[in-house]
């Protein structure tokens, strides 16, 4: 049903006169009469008794009027909601995040998002190295906070910061007594490694760091998350080279030390599907940049 005709019908019903309704609507009387007749034809029943004292509603007209106001109000609400969503003021955004960033970023990011986009519903989904790309591509998440960035032709990336690598070790290790650990001291020590980048394993930032310093660390285990890596480190299974932010989620008994003569870092990125048209994404990226800059 044409909402314009419904508005015309309500105006005539309230005024009980096509002429008075036309004045209120600021239109000529003949076109208004035509629209009312077309509405009656669409419904298949007369809506008004036309008499010398004005236009009274028929039973069908009374039934329509009882619901017309609600329908017009719902339509107006829908239009306003659509405009708000298009402007990035309302809607829903599902945020994926990797565990290594959770403790460092989420406690600051969530309040920032609540302040910046208060009318938007937020969902949060934890991701791993093996699930982050799939969750974006199947639209399970709108955006993903990743470390490192995802390299995929269908995924857009905004690099918003970086974190230096540090060495995670048990506090009982002799290396824990050092203020900074020389790279040479890592030679031959077992490494608890995270999965390499999906499409180019040789481009692993940790592997590149070790190659540049000609250090070989045999891989004792390869795990999905920084949390799992720290658990194995605590158990004495090896050492882990992790972003500095990981220490915020470290269990008791794990210490982090900088690597001497190594300034290597790993990117923090916001990733999303290239074909996404959500106006919330630029606002999310802005909030995330602000938070990461304070790390």
Give structural notes.
The protein is of the alpha/beta class and 295 residues long. The protein folds into 3 domains: 3-86, Arc Repressor Mutant, subunit A (Orthogonal Bundle), CATH 1.10.10.10; 93-148 and 275-292, 3-Layer(aba) Sandwich (D-Maltodextrin-Binding Protein, domain 2); 161-266, 3-Layer(aba) Sandwich (D-Maltodextrin-Binding Protein, domain 2). It is built from 9 helices and 12 strands. It has helices spanning 3-15, 18-25, 29-43, 59-86, 99-116, 132-137, 205-212, 226-234, 280-292; strands spanning 48-51, 54-57, 91-98, 120-127, 143-146, 155-170, 181-182, 191-193, 219-222, 240-243, 254-260, 265-273. The strands form 3 sheets. Strands 3, 4, 5, 6, 7, 10, 11 and 12 form an 8-stranded mixed β-sheet that branches. Strand 1 (48-51) and strand 2 (54-57) form a beta hairpin. It is rod-shaped. It starts with a helix and ends with a helix. The mean pLDDT is 89.
Fill in the keyword field for this structure.
12 strands, 3 domains, 25% strand, eight-stranded mixed sheet, 295 residues, D-Maltodextrin-Binding Protein, domain 2, Arc Repressor Mutant, subunit A, alpha/beta, 9 helices
Q: How would you concisely characterize the structure shown here?
A:
This protein has 295 residues and is α/β, with parallel strands linked by helices. It folds into 3 domains: 3-86, Orthogonal Bundle (Arc Repressor Mutant, subunit A), CATH 1.10.10; 93-148 and 275-292, D-Maltodextrin-Binding Protein, domain 2 (3-Layer(aba) Sandwich), CATH 3.40.190; 161-266, D-Maltodextrin-Binding Protein, domain 2.
């Amino acid at each position: 049903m044409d909402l314009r005709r419904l508005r015309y019908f309500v105006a005539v019903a309230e005024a009980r006169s096509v002429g008075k309704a036309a004045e209120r609507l600021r239109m000529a009387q003949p076109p208004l009469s035509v629209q009312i007749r077309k509405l009656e034809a669409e419904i298949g029943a007369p809506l008004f008794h036309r008499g010398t004292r004005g236009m009274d509603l028929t039973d069908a007209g009374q039934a329509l009027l009882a619901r017309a106001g609600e329908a017009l109000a719902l339509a107006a609400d829908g239009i306003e909601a659509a405009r708000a969503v298009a402007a990035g003021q309302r809607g829903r955004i599902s945020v994926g995040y990797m565990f290594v960033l959770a403790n460092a970023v989420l406690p600051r990011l969530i309040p920032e998002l609540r302040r910046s986009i208060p009318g938007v519903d937020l969902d949060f989904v934890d991701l791993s190295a093996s699930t982050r790309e799939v969750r974006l591509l199947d639209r399970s998440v709108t955006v993903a906070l990743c470390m490192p960035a995802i390299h995929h032709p269908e995924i857009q990336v905004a690099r918003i910061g970086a974190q230096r690598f540090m060495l995670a070790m048990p506090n009982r290790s002799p290396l824990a007594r050092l203020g900074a650990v020389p790279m040479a001291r890592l030679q031959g020590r077992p490494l608890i490694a995270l999965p390499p980048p999906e499409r180019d394993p040789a481009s692993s930032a940790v592997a590149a760091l070790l190659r540049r310093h000609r250090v070989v660390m045999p891989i004792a285990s390869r795990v999905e998350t920084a949390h799992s890596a720290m658990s194995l480190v605590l158990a004495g299974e090896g050492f882990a080279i992790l972003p500095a932010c990981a220490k915020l989620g470290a269990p008791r008994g794990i210490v982090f030390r900088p690597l001497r003569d190594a300034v290597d870092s790993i990117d923090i990125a916001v990733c999303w599907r290239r074909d996404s048209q959500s106006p919330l994404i630029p606002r999310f990226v802005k909030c995330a940049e602000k938070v990461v800059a304070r790390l």
